[in-house]
Amino acid sequence: MDFLIKTLGAIATIIVAFIVGMLYMGINRKITARVQNRVGPPVWQNYIDALKLVSKKTSVHHGVMQHLAPAFLMISSMGTLLFIPILRGQSWFPNLSYHGDLIFILYFMVLGSLGMALGAGQTGNPNAAIGITRGLSQMVGFEIPWVMALVAMMIQYHTTSISDLMAIQQQHGWLMFQNPLAFLAAILAMLGMFRYSPFDIVGAPAELASGPISEFGGKYLGLMMSSGSIFAFTKLTLYVDLFMGGASNIVVLLIETFTLYLIPMLYGLVSPRYRTEQAIRYFWGWPTVLGLAALVYSVVI
Amino acid sequence: MINDKNSQKIVDIIQNFARKHSLFVLAYGTGCGAIEIPPTMTSRYDAERFGIRGAATPRQADVLLITGYLTTKTVKRVIRVYEQMQDPKYVIGFGSCTINGGMYWDSYNTIKVLDRYLPVDIYINGCMPRPEAVIEGFIKLQKKIMEGRAEGAKHYKENLEWYRANQKKVLGPTTPHIQEYNW
Amino acid sequence: MEEKKAQILEKLQKVFPEISETKNDFPYNRVDLRIEKNKIPAILFYLKDEMGYKHLVHITCVDWLEEGKFEVIFIVWSPVDKIKVFVKTFLDRNNPVMDNVDMIWRQANTYERELREMFGIQFEGLVAPKEFILEDWDDMPPMRRDFDTEAYARKRFFARPGREDARDVRQTIAERTGEEIPDFAKKYSR
């Protein structure tokens, strides 16, 4: 009985993440359109796109890894979601959050990208190969400030468990005020994690013919879109858990995640596209300096 | 239950609704018509409010937009692009060059009637059609999809030999001969 | 400008006495000269290396069908003098063969490929892929004036039913409705 409830809870979590993530992306498209003085698509446009992509026929075969790549993405985003506590202090949606910690999540988050790299590599499309090189180099860029920010918090509170960090924030206040340098470094790393402009060279349609996904169409593209929206919600929830003390109910969670989502979205709207080496120089500049300062701060305090 | 006629009808309606409202366009920019696409997509005419957006590769696209005359060299590439697209797929012929040759009616190197080589679902006439006309054409296509009449791809599959013969007449020995592109 | 143009011609004529015909009375910075075809590489080398005409603007061809000749024209430009020199030469239309000049300017290769395909001019020693724009072309080179493009198009491509005569649509409409085409529109009719 307990197992059944847990399974249903996990499925419900994934469905909620899918719906919320798609909605955020729809709002993103709408706001982008309004900034560009357009009417823009309706906010539910992404659901229609996903439905259409799933109902498309798919008859492309390049090899086994090509078929597995969308599954890798999906596993990575769903798995990360299940190991993150969604709501604080309640028995709802606990999923697997007591079994994983920050270090595990750090590794699990990149699984999707690596699986995608293998799959896109097998398609043999030169654009995909270029896109992968750029994507992985950019990942090396933003992973460094991101890991530094996490390690700073682990050192500061001597724990790697997200639930423990959330409990500590109940006593001491939000971590984003306890260690603001780490928060800033993590936020700057988040800009790269979302791959919105200016860090969207990976899938630039005009330059790379949409990069790694250029050989994936139909159902696979639908799967990638869904996993992207779930992953977006996952990352936002992780940030809320780590820096804003977690949310006590779903409304607060939505408000906090959307506020965080506005940062990469609005920053992207006003920025042109960086080349790969510019992006890496960006991440290894001030974000890394902030991350180092956060480390020093956490050791000293 | 699944193969029941009525439930199939409902599935069709849902699928056609989704297909109608989400058209990913691969604009094959031949000729002068390519310049009409940016204003159609950007803030002045904003085709995205109908769910029309650009796709970068044929694998992701639903609509192949052929914007202007096709030389014999490009028609070969267009046929390959069309056959790389995944079902359901639609073709829009754009401008009088694709309808009857237009001002290139006596050219030694451009084809005149596009629907002999590819199944065209909608023609937009004009030389060049303005963005309003393009959007009108897209809305016609959406109506056709909703009514289930936009079956160019099916027609192409059923009459492949006729199309291949026509293509062979223009392209000679280098006509594409594989139907599925898996490389 | 006028003296400069005259000076250039004078200097060239001193080195190349074969120059048969010159012209420099253009209102803009253009000088024309004509020379026999086997002197073309020499004069282009001289213009590039000695006189600073570094830039190859264009290589083109004119089909003089009535005289039975092709006229190949090389346009070169000097960034110092700011003058264009048109080097012209006549080829026999039945045997259009001349020397390859792509060792002087590498981009000449592309122009020569185009002329080979469109006019059938053979450049001796030209190393380039066979096809440039036309793929699987099996007819006469299409830019020659005796090539009937309309007949070729009718033979090779399908015409829209009802539009085989390629007639002006306004004419058809005018006949159907009994109106007359206004004078200003007539000059745009075929």
Order of helices and strands of chain C: HEEHEEEEHEHHH
As a percent range, the share of helical residues of chain B equals: 40-55%
Q: How many angstroms does the end-to-end distance of chain C come to?
A: 44 Å
CATH superfamily of the domain at 2-131 in chain C: NADH:ubiquinone oxidoreductase Nqo5 subunit
Based on helices, strands and strand pairing, what is the structural class of chain B? Answer: alpha/beta
What is the CATH class of chain B? Alpha Beta
Mean pLDDT figure of chain B = 85
Low-confidence spans of chain C: pLDDT under 50, at least 5 residues? none
Q: Outline of chain C, from the CA principal axes?
A: extended
The N- to C-terminal Cα distance of chain B equals: 38 Å
The Cα radius of gyration of chain C reads 22 Å
Rg of chain B to the nearest angstrom?
A: 17 Å
In short:
The complex is a heterotrimer of chains A (301), B (183) and C (190). Chain B is of the alpha/beta class and 183 residues long.
Q: Could you explain how this protein is built, in words?
A:
The complex is a heterotrimer of chains A (301), B (183) and C (190). Chain A is mainly alpha-helical and 301 residues long. Chain A has one domain (2-300). Helix content of chain A is 73%, strand content 0%. Chain A has helices spanning 2-35, 45-54, 64-82, 102-109, 111-123, 126-157, 162-172, 175-178, 180-194, 205-208, 218-243, 250-269, 276-283, 286-300. Chain A is globular and about 55 Å long. The relative contact order of chain A is 0.16. Chain B is of the alpha/beta class and 183 residues long. Chain B has one domain: 3-Layer(aba) Sandwich (Rossmann fold), CATH 3.40.50.12280. Chain B is 41% helix and 12% strand. The mean pLDDT of chain B is 85. With 190 residues, chain C is α/β, with parallel strands linked by helices. Chain C has six helices and seven strands. In chain C, strand 6, helix 3 (108-119) and strand 7 form a beta-alpha-beta unit. The model of chain C has no long low-confidence stretch (mean pLDDT 86). The chains are: A mainly alpha (301), B alpha/beta (183), C alpha/beta (190). Chain A binds chain B through residues 29, 33, 36-42, 45, 48-49, 51-53, 55-62, 124, 127, 205-206, 208-210, 213-218, 221, and chain B through 14-15, 17-19, 21-22, 42-43, 46, 48-49, 51, 53-62, 85-88, 180-183.
